[in-house]
Each structure stands twice: as C-alpha cells, then as structure tokens.
Design brief:
Largest interface: A-B, 11 and 11 residues
Number of strands of chain A: 0
Strand content of chain B: under 5%
Shape of chain B: globular
Structural class of chain B: mainly alpha
Number of helices of chain B: 12
Order of helices and strands of chain A: HHH
Number of domains of chain A: 1
Distance between the termini of chain B: 51 Å
Radius of gyration of chain A: 16 Å
Oligomer: heterodimer
Largest sheet of chain B: none
Strand content of chain A: under 5%
Helix content of chain A: over 70%
Chain lengths: 97, 328
C-alpha cells in the first residue's frame, strides 16, 4: 500500500520534471523559462522527496532526505532570483507578442 | 538477443549523454556555454562513478571536477573574449588530433587487455585481504594513505608546486561587487554548514566514502562562496598563516614518515596500532592544505594583496564593467 502511494508520488514528480524541462526548451523568453523551470521542478522535487520518504524506514536517512530537500530549495530559489535579477538589469530576451 | 534490464538501459542512456555532452562542450563556440556543458558533464560523470560503485571517486568528481573546476573555468571565461573561429586548420591542430587518436588506440588496447586478464589475481583482492592492518576500514583510504601513501604524498607535493605557480601570478584578482541581500543571506547560512560537512567527510574517510581530497574541495567551496559574496580573499588568512596552511599537508606527511624511520620502521610504514591516528593527522593537514591551495587557484594569485587591490585602477575598471555580472 505504502509502495503504491510512494510510486504515485514519484511518477507525479517525474511528470512535473518533464513539464519543467519542456517549458525550459519551448518557452520564448528568459523569465517565462525560469518560471516554468523553478515552479515545476520545485514541485517535482518535493514530490520525489515525499515518495522516497514513504519508502524509508530509517529515521537518519529520512532526516538526510529532508535536509537535501531544504538545501536544494534554498539554492534553487536564490539562483532563480539571481538569474531573474540579472535578466531584469539587462532587459534582454524579453518576449514581445 | 537478451532483453535489457532497466539498469542497463539507464547505463546506456548515461553513456550516450556523457558522450553527447563531451562533444557539445568541445564544439561550443561560446566559452560560457562550453563551461556550463562541462559542469553538466562532470555531474553525469559523478553519477557514472556511482553506477560503477565507486562512491569515493563520485564525491571527488562532483566536488572537484564539476564544482570547483567549473567555478574556476567560469571565473576565467568571464575575463576572456570568445575565440574567433579562423576557419583554417592549424598544424598544431593536426598534430594534436593525431596524438589524441594514438592515445585513444592505446587506451582501447589497455582496456581490452585488462578485461581479458580478469581471471588473474587483482590488486583489489590483496587490499581487501589486508585492510585490517591499515588502521582504517575504508579500502579506498587504506590504499591512498597506507599501501600507496607515497603516491598521495607526491600528489600533495604536485599541488604545492602548482600553488607556487599561482602565487607567481602576483596579487590576487580583484574581488566581486557587493552581493544583494538574498545571496548574502544564503551564504551566511551555507558557509558554516559546508565547513561542518567538510569536517564530517574528513572523519568519515576512515570507514566510509570521503577523505582529505573531498573534504578539502568542499572547504574550498565555502571559500569560493565567501569570495562571490564580497569577502575578497575568500576567508584565507594573512601571509604567514596562509603559507603555513599550504605546506601543512606535505610537512605533516613528511614529518610522520621521517619519525617512523627514526623509530626504525620503513618510511611511511605505519605500525598497526597507530595507523588510524597517524592517517587522521595526515588527512587533517592535507584537507587544510588542499582547501587553501584550491582557493588560491580560484583567487588566481596571492591572497595577501587581494584586499589592498580594491583601490587599484584594474579593480575599478573590472568593477565598472562587470559589477552586475559578478553578482551571479
């Protein structure tokens, strides 16, 4: 039962990762690409960690997974912010309809 | 034909992605794009080492190959104009191609020869049979610091010579512009955590994947983060202390080896009872040296003058043109 739930979370995570990657490749300008990548990947990554946590009996490994989740979230939020800030300053690559 | 297992499919994907990334990184016209592809290549290579059940090398590849080398190359590429393709084939290019092709043939032959000799006694079995005499239970560390301690001592000596080259470049590069509040906050939270993990890797090296090179690379990464967020010398200490740090690894290694000789043992022939502590002492000094040396390479010069360099004309010029870029 737990395995099925974990599997569903992980498959859902993969769906979001793939959507994020397609967004990165297909969207027209830097901001929208960043938007697709960070939002979808954060959701996908959270679901992936959730799925792995369900499969984990060992408390220590579970804590490490949570720590990895926190660190990746912090790093990706900050790097997305930096990329957006730099793009804003350069005002390059804006999509004009 | 046998059906492929899912692991084999993953391995094949990994290998194809590695080859494709290597090719695109070499072929990229834009230097920064090439570096980004190189970093991705390093991360996939680390995954490949995990698949080969070599977590020690995976850690080293991720920390040094992808992380620090990536940061070094990015810093170098931001000062370098993109190369203009000349369209002509140079003589040096032809020679390089021929030599590389020859090397590839030799490596292929070595690979085939090794695979065919799989039945003879492998060194790995000897290591596993004798690992309890080395003072550590991680076979990789037992090879690096005990059976093959000579090699590791000479590797540290090579690093020491390399940093002499870095110091010969003169004062360190100018620092980076002041970071925004978000990056500063992340750096303030991350640097202590990185130092803690580095200490853990050093300690864990005795019984699990880890050791001086991985721990040193991580410690250097903390310094890189400090430099990117405004600490011009990356947290390296002043002149005398810096010089002590870079020679510490080789010095402690030699001191241990020579003391053992005075005690009537062979050079670096650790007595079983003391081996664990001696190896930890050597690895601690080596971690500090490796971190200081890698960080000096990132500063691209002597950290002593890094702070004083701020007022100079070079710094102001770099700062004006790259102030925003450097916040990344």
């Amino acid at each position: 039962m737990i395995e099925i739930a974990a599997g569903m979370f992980i498959v859902l995570a993969l769906f979001f990762f793939i959507s994020g990657s397609i967004g990165l490749l297909r969207l027209p300008d830097g901001y929208s690409r960043l938007h697709a990548l960070t939002k979808a990947d954060n959701l996908g990554f959270g679901l992936l960690i959730l799925g792995l946590l369900l499969l984990q009996m060992d408390l220590l490994i579970a804590i490490k997974l949570l720590l990895v989740w926190l660190l990746v979230m912090a790093a990706s939020a900050v790097s997305a912010h930096l990329i957006a800030q730099r793009a804003r300053r350069q005002e390059r690559g804006l999509w004009k309809p | 034909m046998e059906a492929l297992t899912s692991w084999q499919i993953l391995d094949l994907l990994l290998i194809s992605a590695l080859l494709a990334l290597a090719w695109t990184a070499m072929a990229a016209k834009d230097l920064r794009r090439a570096v980004a592809l190189f970093i991705a290549f390093g991360l996939l290579l680390a995954l490949t080492w995990v698949r080969l059940r070599a977590p020690d090398i995976a850690l080293a590849e991720a920390a040094i190959g992808a992380g620090l080398t990536g940061a070094l190359l990015l810093a170098a590429a931001s000062d370098e104009p993109d190369p203009v393709p000349s369209g002509r084939i140079s003589a040096a290019g032809v020679v390089l191609t021929v030599v590389s092709a020859g090397l590839a043939v030799v490596l292929g032959w070595v690979f085939v020869a090794t695979v065919q000799q799989a039945d003879s006694t492998r060194l790995a079995e000897e290591v596993f049979a004798n690992v309890e005499t080395t003072g550590v239970s991680n076979p990789v560390t037992s090879v690096l610091l005990n059976f093959r301690a000579y090699d590791t001592l000479l590797e540290l000596a090579v690093l020491l010579i390399a940093v002499l080259g870095v110091l010969a470049l003169g004062p360190a590069r100018a620092g980076y512009g002041a970071p925004g509040p978000v990056l500063s906050l992340l750096a303030r939270r991350l640097v202590p955590l990185i130092i803690l993990v580095s200490g853990y890797l050093l300690w864990a090296g005795a019984h699990a994947p880890g050791g001086a090179f991985q721990a040193g690379a991580l410690l250097a990464a903390a310094g890189v983060l400090l430099r990117l967020t405004g600490t011009t010398n990356g947290g390296l200490p002043g002149d005398g202390a810096f010089r002590t740090l870079i020679v510490a690894g080789v010095a402690v290694f030699l001191a241990v080896g020579l003391s053992l000789m005075l005690a009537g043992r062979p050079f670096l022939g650790f007595p079983v009872a003391w081996a664990g502590s001696l190896i930890l002492a050597i690895e601690t000094a080596a971690t500090l040296s490796i971190a200081a040396i890698l960080l000096a390479a990132f500063l691209a010069g002597d950290p002593k003058h890094a702070a004083a360099n701020r007022g100079s004309k070079t710094w102001q010029r770099t700062h004006k043109t790259q102030g925003h870029a450097n916040e990344l």
